[in-house]
Amino acid sequence: MKARFNGKCVECGEAIKTGKEILKNSKDQWVHKACSDIEEELP
What we know:
Blueprint lengths: L6 E2 L6 E2 L5 E3 L5 E3 L11
Antiparallel strand pairs: 1-2, 3-4
C-alpha cells in the first residue's frame, strides 16, 4: 500500500513520505515496507 500522508516509521525512525510503500507490522503500526516484521500477503 502507498502512504497517503507523511509520517514516521516506528521501526527505523525515518520519515515515511507520501507515496512510499508501507505495511503494518505485528503491532498493527504502519512502517516502511522493508521495515515490516511480517511478510506481505500475496493475493
